[in-house]
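Lecture notes, part 5. Sequence design as translation. It can be helpful to think of inverse folding as translation between two languages: the language of shapes and the language of residues. The source text, in structure tokens, appears below.
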């Protein structure tokens, strides 16, 4: 059906005096008053190609900060997913760094910790309710990198991390973004560790996996939940099926979902397991369909009730295989898996964030010691 009469565009359709929202020809949609949301789109690139950056979603914005690629980076860039992904540049981080963590809470994107030759304890918040205005919050109790972040019930919570080449942290610190970022210390993780994953759902922040021990050679499958509806009360959930690090997490429709990861035992052992914890029901665990490939250094994000995982490598940051698959788990429908359009490039160590129904993935690399890093920013609207 052509939306023209002669050379004139038809702006609206009516039946009698009532405007028509949609017109179908058989089962095919041929007209929609509201243009359909694209399932995939490329957004403006990051200012710098980089990896080991952090992402956070807040008030419909996907915000990416820090990273490394041709040097340490302190740029903070926001994509307004309420307005077609329009990009803006925010005030820089106080320190250029990578291995930092991000969390979204009450309209704020909060970034903490990191590494740039030395470990860092700074915590910086960007108010996406107010054009990304930056504020500095109380520091972490330890300078650390490789920590995990998650947001729930207006709190940004950071856990674990590496404090030196031989020491790690079990500390869990919460920033109340309902109250100007007031800091509190929660019950510690069961084990000091780094390269763990975090996700938030239904007022809980949940942390899973990681590596620690002397020399960083002990792997963990613990899953620990903090109820931010109840002052951060801690509970222990069923363990992951495999002890691993460098997995990814995402929150969706009251579930936290963890995917991928790796551990080392006479060589890198990769993992494709996907496990969901129903935080609407005391953290009951279920096992979902596996990822199409076993991999680590992937990214996760949640939106529209979907937990989405993208990219990854076959272990290590000088990989022999890289991946560009994007796989979505519909937590509105028992975790049914679907495959979305591939990333533009196969890559690892990228970052993800969920905002206004979109999951957005940014940055990444083919090798930490090579020169092929990426500044692509790609948005998906799962469920379309």
């Amino acid at each position: 059906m052509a939306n023209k009469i002669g050379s004139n565009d038809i702006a609206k359709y009516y039946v009698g005096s009532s405007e028509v929202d949609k017109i179908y020809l058989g089962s095919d949609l041929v007209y929609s008053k509201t243009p359909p949301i694209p399932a995939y789109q490329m957004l403006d690139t990051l200012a710098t190609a980089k990896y080991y950056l952090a992402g956070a979603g807040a008030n419909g914005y996907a915000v990416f900060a820090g990273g490394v690629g041709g040097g340490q980076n302190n740029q903070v860039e926001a994509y307004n997913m309420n307005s077609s992904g329009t990009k803006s540049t925010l005030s820089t981080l106080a320190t250029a760094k990578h291995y930092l963590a991000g969390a979204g809470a009450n309209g704020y994107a909060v970034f903490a910790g990191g590494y740039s030759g030395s470990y860092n304890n700074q915590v910086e918040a960007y108010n996406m309710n107010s054009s990304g205005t930056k504020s500095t919050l109380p520091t972490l109790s330890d300078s650390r990198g490789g920590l995990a972040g998650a947001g729930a019930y207006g709190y940004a919570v950071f856990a674990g991390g590496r404090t030196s080449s031989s020491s790690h942290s079990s500390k869990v610190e919460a920033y109340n973004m309902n109250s100007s970022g007031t800091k509190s210390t929660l019950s510690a993780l069961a084990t000091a560790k780094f390269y763990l994953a975090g996700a938030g759902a239904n007022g809980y922040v949940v942390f899973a996996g990681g590596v620690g021990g002397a020399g960083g050679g002990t792997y963990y499958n613990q899953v620990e939940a903090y109820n931010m509806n109840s002052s951060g009360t801690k509970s222990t959930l069923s363990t992951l099926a495999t002890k691993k690090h460098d997995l990814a997490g995402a929150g969706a429709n009251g579930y936290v979902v963890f995917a991928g990861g790796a551990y080392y035992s006479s060589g890198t052992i990769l993992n494709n397991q996907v496990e969901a914890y129903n935080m609407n029901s005391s953290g009951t665990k279920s096992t979902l369909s596996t990822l199409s490939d076993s991999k680590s250094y992937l990214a996760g994000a949640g939106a529209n009730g979907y937990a989405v995982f993208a990219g990854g490598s076959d272990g290590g940051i000088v990989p022999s295989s890289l991946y560009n698959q994007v796989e979505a788990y519909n937590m509105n429908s028992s975790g049914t898996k679907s495959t979305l359009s591939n990333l533009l490039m196969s890559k690892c160590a990228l970052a993800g964030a969920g905002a206004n129904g979109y999951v957005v993935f940014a940055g990444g690399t083919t090798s930490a010691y090579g020169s092929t890093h990426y500044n692509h920013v790609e948005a998906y609207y799962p469920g379309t």
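The translated text above is only one of many valid answers, since several sequences can fold into similar shapes. The mean pLDDT is 93.
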